[in-house]
């Protein structure tokens, strides 16, 4: 029985993976005997392109500034956050003042990695792919309504105030 590799999409990890229909084996790595060029001919290869992730998913990064009325007013940076919501919004605006009208993902990630109150700061604010129902409603609505490559206005959630940058 010879391998019958195809590319499928993992709903739990929100990433494409390789599946051999003949053996039932799956892997995250390119299967032996295949190259970057040959995997493009496999069934499901379109799933490897970020633009072709399932339509009900988006990918975004965010810059979160918590305030004293946030659901959990502490972060990896500060044990006890005492700033007001207005001060948090002012911080967001100050941190992104140099972005101009069309910030890049790199600019956004650089600021988020240092200043975001979310543990995603370690990944430049990247939250990966998510679907409706996985985020707080205001965050979800703002993200799904943003075009890819755009940054939101201030988004207020129970977690704090955010800028969101949609990446896919």
Features:
single chain, 168 residues, alpha+beta, 2 domains, four-stranded antiparallel sheet
Question: Secondary structure elements and their pairing?
Answer:
Layout: E1 5-10, E2 15-20, E3 26-27, H1 36-39, E4 57-65, H2 85-95, H3 105-115, E5 126-131, H4 137-145, E6 155-157, E7 160-166
Antiparallel strand pairs: 1-2, 2-3, 4-5, 4-7, 6-7
Folded structure, characterized:
- With about 170 residues, the chain is of the alpha+beta class.
- It folds into two domains: about 5-50, no CATH class; about 55-165, Chitinase A, domain 3 (Roll), CATH 3.10.50.
- It contains four helices and seven strands, in the order βββαβααβαββ.
- The chain has a four-stranded antiparallel sheet, sandwiched between helices. The protein has a three-stranded antiparallel sheet with strand order 1-2-3, with no helix packed on it.
- A hairpin with a 2-residue loop joins strand 6 (about 155) and strand 7.
- The two termini are about 40 Å apart.
- Keywords: Isomerase, Rotamase.
- InterPro entries: PPIase_dom_sf (IPR046357), PPIase_Pin1 (IPR051370), PPIase_PpiC (IPR000297), PPIase_PpiC_CS (IPR023058), WW_dom (IPR001202), WW_dom_sf (IPR036020).
- It comes from Pseudozyma flocculosa.
Write a compact overview of the structure shown:
The chain is an alpha+beta fold and 168 residues long. It is built from 4 helices and 7 strands, in the order βββαβααβαββ. It folds into 2 domains: 5-52, no CATH class; 57-166, Chitinase A, domain 3 (Roll), CATH 3.10.50.40.
């Amino acid at each position: 029985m010879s391998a019958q590799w195809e590319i499928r999409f993992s709903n739990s990890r929100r990433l494409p993976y390789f599946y051999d229909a003949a053996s039932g084996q799956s892997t995250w790595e390119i299967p032996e005997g295949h190259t970057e060029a040959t995997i493009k001919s496999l069934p499901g290869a379109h799933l490897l392109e970020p633009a072709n992730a399932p339509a009900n998913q988006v990918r975004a990064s965010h810059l979160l500034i918590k305030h004293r009325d946030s659901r959990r007013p502490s972060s990896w940076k500060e044990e006890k956050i005492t700033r007001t919501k207005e001060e948090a919004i002012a911080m967001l605006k100050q941190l992104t003042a140099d972005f101009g009208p069309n910030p890049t993902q790199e600019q956004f990630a650089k600021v988020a990695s240092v200043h975001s109150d979310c543990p995603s700061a370690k990944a430049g604010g990247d939250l990966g792919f998510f679907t409706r129902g996985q985020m707080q409603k205001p965050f979800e609505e703002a993200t799904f309504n943003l075009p890819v490559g755009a940054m939101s206005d201030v988004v207020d959630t129970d977690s704090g105030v955010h800028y969101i940058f949609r990446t896919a």
